[in-house]
Amino acid sequence: MEKLDLELCFVEILIDGFSLRELDIKWLRERIGYVGQEPKLFHMDISSNIRYGCTRDITQEDVERAAKQAYAHEFISSLPNGYKTLVDDDVLSGGQKQRIAIARAILRDPAILILDEATSALDAESEHNVKGVLRAVRSESMAKRTVIVIAHRLSTIQAADRIVVMDGGQVVEMGSHRELLHQDGLYARLNRRQADAVA
């Protein structure tokens, strides 16, 4: 079996207590969901886009449940062909595409969900919906899931259990939103700067 080959200096990454170096890459990929800044949707219907890459048998009910968790079901249902709507650049907004990509990741039921700048290009309403998705995914009692959110927009991560602040490739602070504001370090300064920019 192919193993993940990493050359890491002074760092060991553990998943459920096992070193990343020891894990089978195929096994690991099946347990990670990833949504990037610019989601990749395919020229196929919305239901097929949400199902894409899922290795288990999926029903339409499963697809719709994932879409509901991603705050996508309502807008999908309002489209003329619903879940059978063909994805085209002119049909969906950036926020709608992002929620479809999140539904795809949720459907796979990953142990680790990585959202890499998933809200950076969204308007305020779409960002609010995606933050709702994050709250829903975190509070699901059915799934034990680690959600890693990579963000420059601090409003996206305020509800996180733990925030890791990096500067120049180094971890400089770690804690909850409240703890980091109380420390009055880099996170607090960035938070004030972003709040001033919005005001």
TrEMBL record:
InterPro entries per UniProt: ABC_transporter-like_ATP-bd, ABC_transporter-like_CS, P-loop_NTPase, Type_1_exporter
Ranges for domain ABC transporter: 1-193
GO molecular function: ATP binding; ATP hydrolysis activity; ATPase-coupled transmembrane transporter activity
Any one Gene Ontology cellular component term annotated for this protein: chloroplast envelope
Stored Gene3D superfamilies: P-loop containing nucleotide triphosphate hydrolases
Signal peptide start and end residues: none
SUPFAM superfamilies: P-loop containing nucleoside triphosphate hydrolases
Pfam name, any one: ABC_tran
Name this protein carries in UniProt: ABC TRANSPORTER B FAMILY
Organism: Salix koriyanagi
